[in-house]
Write a structure and sequence with these properties.
FAD/NAD(P)-binding domain, 9-stranded mixed β-sheet, 7-stranded mixed β-sheet, 25 strands, 29% helix
């Protein structure tokens, strides 16, 4: 008996030692990430005496912010025409890009529903869409083959439209200005101004600072903008939205999780006549994601790859995987003899229903679009949800203005409108589909199929998720990638194609932890699609001007903070 217990204890000891040694080889990004710099993002001191006053401020000129601004202006105009209206209302929109659309990127296959609601007298031909989806296909890829699969109900896009989100945003901006909305491009919001628990406006980011923080010849100080209601429509991984939720202790059933998408536009010799989605290769079987190829014009295609940031390989590199993917027989014939004309990257909130904040409003504030996590991964849709959330916010804000009451109690109408809408109904129906893939591609596919068959009723519980940064990463195991400069490109070449206009002497907007070692530095170098990070002599070196504001770094690495207006990419047709 004693002998057997001894042998069993030795077995357990060897097993524990093996597990311990294996765990030491795993990299957990959360161990090296600094906390959200909330003291920089929530400011409680009194507003500046030279502040700018507006009635309503939308932070972010993306689909959510602009749709909200347009709808609010429409409601005010209709109300004033009754003779008992609010009168002149100042509606402002802040945008960090130098011009509308320059920081906006998506696939994008659009559901036109909110466009038709905002502009009921316009035909679809009057909207800024490229082509209507008439044919589509989904493929399972292996290294050299593709097998066509039945299109899942959630991914059917027949009757929707392929669009350039840059063009959509510029078009919405023109409609907003025609309605009397003031748009301030090149003015990032750097902090929320608060009074007690109430949001009373924002402070913009100073510009013209030199790398050492000193004031250059073009220095412009930050400006306080006061508002009765501030609508946060910052897009994915919004810093002020993160800070507000943390400050107010507003949680969610699951933490938000993210994917990183890399996209390219190609002028081609061979036309593409269908919307294509793929799954499988080149992703490892324990990573979630897929690729797309969409026709914008007969000889202009968008191609890209999206990968969940809870992947498990320390050297997985989404940009490099996208380059390798283009060599596949499904894609290569369309791209050969063509030219890559634009490149970009961004994160996408993927947590779905269970990652939505338990409330998306407060005293003087509402959260819209991607900032609140309104994205349905199974259908690859978020733009129409973002616009719809802006429309609902406009109705709640208008009612608050009419009652001269922008308290949380009054703005709670926003959540009521969202919760009673198709947005939440659809997110609830697919609530576990993305989460099912946490344990691998094959088990996730089976579970997602059962969820589809049961209308989301299987399983009868929430699938729990952790933060992306808490997912352990296995040691490097991939070969070194060498781009050919014709079909495949380096990260530096890609950043050039993003139109990056950041000046070289800008101060760093990235906050790295103090414990970063060579392994972590190499992980950051692979994680970032824009060559911002390097491992040099065992230490981390950062190249902040390369950053295209995709926010992947804020999910898994050094914290991203707002920088001067106009910095970053200058997308034209993404």
């Amino acid at each position: 008996m004693c002998s057997r217990l001894y042998r069993d204890s030795r077995k357990r000891s060897r097993k524990q030692k093996t597990v311990s040694m294996a765990s030491r080889d795993l990299l957990i990004p959360a161990n090296f990430q600094v906390a959200l710099p909330r003291d920089q993002l929530i400011l409680e001191d009194p507003l500046d005496a030279e502040r700018i006053d507006v009635d309503v401020l939308f932070v972010g000129a993306g689909p959510a912010g602009l749709a909200g601004a347009v709808r609010l202006a429409q409601l005010v105009k209709q109300d004033n025409e009754t003779g008992t209206g609010l009168g002149d209302i100042t509606i402002g929109v802040l945008e960090k890009a130098g011009a509308l659309g320059e920081h906006t990127l998506s696939g994008a296959v659009l559901n036109p529903k909110p466009f038709r609601e905002l502009f009921p007298t316009l035909e679809d031909s009057g909207f800024p869409f490229r082509t209507r989806v008439e044919k589509e296909a989904i493929y399972l890829l292996s290294r050299s083959r593709s097998r066509r699969l039945p299109t899942p109900p959630t991914m059917r896009n027949h009757g929707h439209f392929v669009a350039s989100l840059c063009e959509v945003v510029r078009w919405l901006g023109e409609r907003a200005e025609e309605a009397g909305v003031d748009i301030f491009a090149g003015f990032p919001a750097g902090a929320l101004r608060v009074d007690g628990d109430r949001v009373v406006g924002v402070r913009t980011v100073a510009s013209g600072l030199e790398r050492d923080g000193s004031r250059g010849s073009s220095y412009m100080p930050p400006t306080d903008i006061a508002a009765k209601v501030t609508a946060l429509a910052e897009g994915s991984r919004g810093m002020l939205s993160q800070a507000y939720l943390e400050w107010q202790g507003i949680g969610s059933a699951n933490p938000q999780i993210y994917a990183l998408g890399v996209k390219e536009l190609w002028e081609t010799k061979r036309p593409l006549d269908k919307v294509i989605h793929t799954m499988g290769w080149p992703l490892p079987k324990d990573a979630f994601g897929g690729s797309f190829m969409y026709p914008l014009e007969p000889n202009l295609v968008a191609i890209g790859l999206v990968v969940g940031l809870d992947y498990h390989e320390a050297d997985l590199d989404v940009h490099e995987l996208c380059q390798v993917m283009k060599l596949h027989p499904l894609f290569r014939p369309f791209l050969e003899d063509g030219e890559m004309v634009e490149w970009g990257a961004k994160t996408i909130p993927e947590g779905g229903y269970y990652s939505l904040p338990l409330r998306r409003y407060g005293d003087g504030v509402v959260l819209l679009g991607d900032s609140a996590g309104f994205v349905d991964v199974p259908s690859l849709k978020g733009i129409h949800y973002a616009m719809q959330s802006g429309i609902f916010a406009a109705h709640a804000i208008f009612a608050a203005l009419k009652h001269d009451d922008s308290s949380a109690t009054r703005l709670a109408v926003y959540d009521e409108l969202v919760n009673d809408s198709y947005v939440i109904r659809e997110l609830y129906r697919t609530r576990n589909m993305r989460l099912a893939f946490k344990n691998g591609f094959y088990s996730g596919t089976v579970q997602a199929g059962l969820m589809t068959l049961t209308g989301g009723r299987f399983p009868a519980r929430r699938i729990g998720m952790g933060l992306d940064s808490e997912a352990p990463r296995k040691p490097p195991q991939r070969p070194v990638f060498a781009p050919d400069g014709e079909l495949t490109y380096s990260k530096v070449d890609a950043v050039f194609k993003s139109g990056n206009v950041t000046r070289d002497t800008i101060p760093s907007h990235l906050i790295a932890g103090e414990k970063v070692n060579a392994d972590v530095a190499r992980f950051y170098a692979h994680m970032c699609p824009a060559a911002v990070y390097e491992e040099v002599d065992g230490a981390l070196r950062m190249n902040p001007p390369n950053c295209v504001d995709c926010k992947a770094t804020d999910v898994l690495g050094p914290r991203w903070t707002p920088r001067e207006g106009g910095a970053g990419p200058a997308y034209k047709r993404m």
